[in-house]
Amino acid sequence: MLTRMIPRERLATTPISWGVVGGGRWGVDLATDRVLDEMSDLGFSAAEIGVPSFLPDDAGEARALLDRHGMQAVAGAQSLVMHEPSVADAELAAARQMAARLARLGADVMMTVPKRADLAVGERLDRDGWQRVFAMFAAIDDVLAEHGLRQALHPHVGSLVEDAADMETVLEGSSVGWCFDTAHVASGGLDPVAFAATCPRINHFHLKDARLDLGRAMVSHEVDFPDAIRREVFVPLGDGDLPIPEIVAAMAGRDDVWWVLEQDQAVPVEPAAGEGPCRAVRRSLDFLATLG
Q1: What is the torsional sign of CA 183, 121, 214, 265?
Q2: Which helix (H) or strand (E) holds 180?
Q3: Beta strand residue intervals within 54-139, DSSP E
Q4: What angle in degrees, to the nearest 10, is found between the helix axes of 59-68 and 32-41?
Q5: What's the CA gap between 101 and 60, in Å, rounded?
Q6: Taking the complete model, does pTM exceed 0.85, yes or no?
Q7: In terms of residue numbers, what domain contains 85?
Q8: Taking each helix axis from N to C terminus, what angle separates 88-105 and 59-68, rounded to the nearest 10 degrees?
Q9: Would 3 be classed as within a structural domain?
């Protein structure tokens, strides 16, 4: 039984916790039916929609598949170039297309990831560049509102918002909602407990643990993201360096957002039934059950 601090009806998971990233880039992309079955067997009834290849392109077919497994779609991600005016219209059109799909699937949130495009590693936007990003956040908010969705900026290694300076710039300059990803926030150099307690606009919540030495090396680009995944930068809750009980306590009562158990992990070979990623997810659930 999960702790009373965690809203069980708002607990979800995501296909990337089963290593599904598309194209076999991290090893094996497990079959959709198997992943949904294992999610359901673990007690989940809600999940993010994952990469485009995870669900059928047709939204009606995708929703029917989720229904057959007793699963509800809660969110999906869209990477967008936000700082280059020449592509703004095309990127807003892509956001509108994803918003329509998410709405048809019954989701609540679209996570946005601002792409670096032609910006080199270590190169930072100037003030005007950030203002263009903030304007795009606002425009995307308007698009999503038309579909009854909320935006959740996802800080992520390799994006425009990956370290503490980037996150602080956005917090100070924009009213965009956030996907509070505990591991990416901590790896980027912010205190996740303080973030949970003070960020006024958390619209989505990725609860995951990490090995911070490797996570920080990933954010500083000493280790690339796929290599960090292969080296297990993200681990089951309680196995890493994050203060998960304190984070959960700081988020207690937040039953207006989805609590997504996420552990990006590679699956080198097809695991036997009941083995592989589902065991790691079960360990995270077991850890949450120990919290008082």
Answers
A1: positive
A2: strand 178-181
A3: 72-73, 75-80, 109-114
A4: 40
A5: 10
A6: yes
A7: 47-289
A8: 40
A9: no
- Which of 23, 24, 22 minimizes the C-alpha distance to 49? 22
3-state class (DSSP) for residue 127: helix
CATH of the domain at 137: 3.20.20.150
> What are the residues whose beta carbons fall under 8 Å from the beta carbon of 61, sequence distance 6 or more?
none
Cα–Cα distance between 119 and 141 in angstroms, integer? Answer: 25
CA distances from 43 to 21, 71, 107, 235 (A): 23, 10, 19, 20
Please count the structural domains in the chain.
1
* 255 token code pair: 């039953």
Residue 39 lies in a domain: no
Domain contains 6 = no
- In a domain? residue 15: no
* β-bridge partners, 202: 178
Going 283 to 288 to 289 to 291, the CA torsion angle's sign is positive
SS3 178: strand
Q: Of 172, 174, 175, 180, which Cα lies nearest the Cα of 202?
A: 180
Task: Dihedral sign for Cα 261, 44, 140, 25, please.
Answer: positive
- Please list the pLDDT of the chain residue by residue as tens digits (292 residues): 466 778 889 999 999 999 999 999 999 999 999 999 999 999 999 999 999 999 999 999 999 999 999 999 999 999 999 999 999 999 999 999 999 999 999 999 999 999 999 898 888 999 999 999 999 999 999 999 999 999 999 999 999 999 999 999 999 999 999 999 999 999 999 999 999 999 989 999 999 999 999 999 999 999 999 999 999 999 999 999 999 999 999 999 899 999 999 999 999 999 998 899 999 999 999 999 999 6
Give the pair of three-digit tokens for residue 76: 């999906």
Whole-angstrom Cα distance, residue 136 to residue 131?
A: 9
- Estimate to the nearest angstrom the gap between the alpha carbon of 29 and the chain centroid: 18
**Exposed e or buried b per residue across 161-188, where buried means at least 16 C-beta atoms within 10 angstroms of its C-beta:** bbbeebbebbbeebebbbbbbbbbbbbb
